[in-house]
TrEMBL record, chains A, B, C, D:
Cofactor requirement: Zn(2+)
A GO molecular-function descriptor: aldehyde-lyase activity
Superkingdom as given in the UniProt entry: Bacteria
Organism this protein belongs to: Fructobacillus pseudoficulneus
Keyword Isomerase: yes
Entry keyword set: Arabinose catabolism, Carbohydrate metabolism, Isomerase, Metal-binding, Zinc
Protein name from the UniProt record: L-ribulose-5-phosphate 4-epimerase
């Protein structure tokens, strides 16, 4: 069986979604990418978390062909494939319908960075990617979702390695990271920061974005050469 | 004992209500319908979920007569009977007082379709059925509730097979499906989408309904001939 | 030991508060009343639910004297005593700091009856009792709390047997019932209806009170001679 | 090993954070102070609660030097050190990112005292400390956080022994108490009162601060010479 270690990681990352309260039913999927073989492992479509095993995950190449697996892959697999091709350096992707993040997506709004809880993980507002056109929806919907995310990051000059999350307008969150587990971590952080931000925005109509120096400080306390948080 | 297989399904569907966080105390009921015998099986009135067994469920005909059972059926049984008679092709019905859905019912508002989480299951806004008149309330209240739901769907041209949920104004949600289990699934989806929509509506006063092409795409990804979600 | 059966009921009713999510720490108390002996049993002050036993509950007479018990009774005991003296026919009282109900108390607002979830249990708005004066607070605070509740019901013509709940403004809910267990049930219903009503009031500024005929129908479906809900 | 009894208290206090729903992942830390040795014990930086033991806690002096421990202390240790030096009589400090409190911090607002739930523990509004300047953030950020808290209490004339909590604007809550356990208790009270207050503030735009006599009564019912709540 291909990629046994990666299968285990992706299995554990998928199972973390219900544990972290990020999914109802089967409404979420996690994948992990192996840069050497250029293959990724993803949850089968519509399978319950109770039925999931490392062995029934599906292995695909970046063109979306199933390389190993009896089951159909997540319908979102072409989104994952496109992101692995165009967001260099990522090794895992998570998609959920977690409710605070979806509320921002439904409203068509970025999640602004209004607290250090957000700044510790995402180096700026989490962007809301505009709804696809009718044409983009009809053909290759899921691949076009990936294209729209990549295009929005390019147009708005957002670095996908420091802001590793996006909202598809009227749909929901996609997050990514260096591996499957980190992409799930980012999905939870996004949900928590959306919750906090929603509550803060009910208390005030002021612009409460962090000043740049506070954003810099908190992000850099946890990331890069100047990081000093944690034991590493 | 009649309808043993259906009894088990209806029992399990009722027990899923507290597991899914959809009821407090005894504030919910699920029934399942057997098209061949034209009988349905429903939860007894006011019985706690701890006391419920497949054997103490109540079997009724579509006129509301108890065919088998020691206990009184749910007071909502005439609503269920009316819906089985007039909504062709349904095999299960759920009623709860889940709080996000009841909030929309209390406000007298439809739950608008503002995200794909909604569109994946309900093909349009979930309608709020106007409060019954004093006369409708006094005589045959529960049957008149069923009539009002059916009338609203007819008047507004809503297809009950693709929008399998309604809110009774100032009361709460009714959902249905091909069997008891699916009706519970729809009750949970309605609660989740009401929660998301409520939160989105606190963030913006814009009309954030899905465009038709996005609604079509997501509903049809999971339903009908063009469906490609899941393993079936 | 006095009142062993009542002690067990009051113990179980107190233990239901954390199970139903109605209290943090020790912020709640339940008592039960024995009409024959004119004594009531109440939780000791500040004792954790883990330490509570039927035996360490405190027995008081209606003047507030401890008749049996090593521990100090709840500081709210004089409120309970006053209500037992002046609200005829009640046998149990619950006080909590549950957060949706306290939000209404903090805002100084009644919980209006906007859904059948409320009407099934409380026959009208749950009144908010005005904050005590400085004088009422300084002397016999807890007894004066009971007096203010009874006075508000009298002034507003509310029947304490059909609307068995009140909010003390800027403080929190008191509920009562035929016994300790029913008073806890009413505490949970009040919390749920406050939650629903709060959410409905974020969706609309319209007056969404139930019409009288719907309030009558639902309350009487569960109470009095015309009741037909449940197995009794 | 130094301070074995204090290590156990601080360990238990840290473990209470996830039990009380106050932290996600590693986003919180508790310390305890030994006045005799002028040393404090704190959680290691970024360590998961599953990995935490009394033995791997870190012991520091008030200058921030590690006196005992293999792991790096919490990055917030200099904030704790500063508060121990300048807030006389405290023996424990807690920092979390609990979401209702952070919402107030993000909005830059005090948590006003609008209910007795708040007044039972904090003798007035919980102040929001203004965001640090760019200069304060760049050098000795964590120590400057402590300085800003102490300065705000001095400038606003707030007694840190009766209002034992602060919000750092755009960041989150710090609470303290006579020992580690009490500081965690205060962290939970702050979260609950922020939740209640947020909900009350959605219901009304009136000034709903407690009158002074009600604040006095409730605070003094639980604290000081006139206290009569509890068994002590």
């Amino acid at each position: 069986m291909l990629l046994e270690k990666l299968r285990l990681e992706v299995y554990q990352a998928n199972m973390a979604l219900p544990e972290l309260g990020l999914v109802s039913f089967t409404w979420g999927n996690v994948s992990g990418y192996d840069a050497q073989s250029q293959l990724f492992v993803i949850k089968p479509s519509g399978l319950s978390y109770e039925q999931l095993t490392p062995a029934n995950l599906v292995v695909l190449d970046l063109s979306g062909n199933v390389v190993e697996g009896e089951l159909k892959p997540s319908t979102d697999a072409p989104t994952h494939a496109y992101l692995y091709q165009h967001f260099s350096g990522i090794g895992g992707i998570t998609h959920t319908h977690s409710s605070w993040a979806v509320a921002y997506a439904a409203a068509g709004l970025d999640v602004p960075v209004v607290s250090t809880t957000h700044a510790d993980t995402f180096f700026g507002d989490v962007p809301c990617v505009p709804t696809l056109t009718a044409k983009e929806l009809t053909e290759n919907y899921e691949q076009n979702t990936g294209k729209a995310i990549v295009r929005t990051f390019a147009e708005r000059g957002i670095n996908h390695l420091t802001t590793s999350a996006a909202l598809m307008a009227q749909h929901g969150p996609f997050t990514w990271g260096k591996d499957a587990g980190e992409s799930v971590y980012h999905a939870k952080v996004l949900e928590v920061t959306a919750e906090i931000t929603h509550r803060a925005m009910q208390l005030t109509h002021a612009d409460i974005h962090l000043p740049q120096h506070l954003l810099d400080k908190h992000y850099q306390r946890k990331h890069g050469k100047t990081a000093y948080y944690g034991q590493a």
